[in-house]
Amino acid sequence: MATSSTPRPRARDCGISIGTLPTGKYNAITDVDGVRVGHSTVIRGEGALAPGVGPVRTGVTAIRPHPGDLFRDKVAAWVQRINGFGEVTNAEQVREMGVLETPILLTGTQNVPRVADAMLDWDFARDPELCVTTWGPGPVVAECSDQYLSDARGRHVSAAHVFAALEAARGGPVAEGSVGGGTGMTCCEFKGGIGTSSRVLPPELGGYALGVLVMSNFGRREHLLIDGVPVGRALRDWQPAAGVNPERLGSSIIIVLATDAPLDSRQLERVSVRAAGGLARAGGLYSTSSGDFVIAFSTTHRTAHNPAAREQPQRTLAESILADQNWPAAPPINHLFQAALEATEEAILNSLFAAETMIGRDGHTRYGLPLAEVVAIMQAHGRGDARLPA
Fold this sequence. Notes:
- By secondary structure, the protein is of the alpha+beta class.
- It has a single domain, classed as L-amino peptidase D-ALA esterase/amidase.
- The chain is built from eight helices and 14 strands.
- The protein has a six-stranded mixed sheet. Strands 1-2-5-6 form a four-stranded mixed sheet.
- Helix 2 (about 110-125) crosses helix 3 (about 160-170) and helix 5 packs across helix 7 (about 330-355).
- The longest helix has 23 residues, at about 330-355.
- The two termini are about 25 Å apart.
């Protein structure tokens, strides 16, 4: 159970602004036109763990790159492994073909097979020709472990929860913290979960938007950095997690990166690598037991499943992708690299700032990041803009 239902501020609400590029209207992945996000949260029971029964602190988050039929109108995509102790289903197909043909679903580790199965049911219900006159879609489901707070053996995310998240997907503001796939997640020994942020390039560089959504479940408290300030060290002894070996804490993160810049899969790979820099700047170590992945896509570089049926023929590749080189001027892709780094770092912070304290199985507790203490630490390090919102 969460101990409070009062919405918590985001990092920028507390005067903490990451980087120099401007954010989009919502400072969210949905600032990339067409991208939609939906959550389904599953919370029930409390007290001692009954394996296969509860308590339950889990859920699923759906990211839809555009509102149309993604199988019939695929987007350029890439899956980047930072550290591979985890799962992104059909990652090899995405890397091989360079496209994404289903929404992206984020959930707890043991839920993955049921979530992927539900994704197929959802797609089959929408398109009777799948696996009849054409091949079937390859569901992309990514995971982090929520077993510290939740009964993982029960695999409590059902097809109904998956359908609900997909159908609830909307543009605009995105719910953060302990929602959807982020419900049972831990970040730097505090409550983690879903976080998002965006950046927009200036008009002279194309005005492209880049947005990031993370499901944070990584790190040790003493490694947490907030805009370069060693906040985690200062909070090392604040409400310590009793009886837990820090080396066995959650160590994973899923980073979903969207852009409307016309990038192909090779260029999306390059941008994805820079997102790892944002993880490092927040204190991520890519530890041996980490499942750290970036799933990136471009909403404007698309491939029709049946090109002959497309009303407008797709532009040739040379015309449709952004130039990597623009010598002697710096190419716009350099600014997308910066955007990926900044938005990833801030999305991680938003996942922490938004998440409330949660008590799960066996009384296991993950405290929400103590914002008053964080602001005081930032101020002590010369960050005079840091403040609690009125």
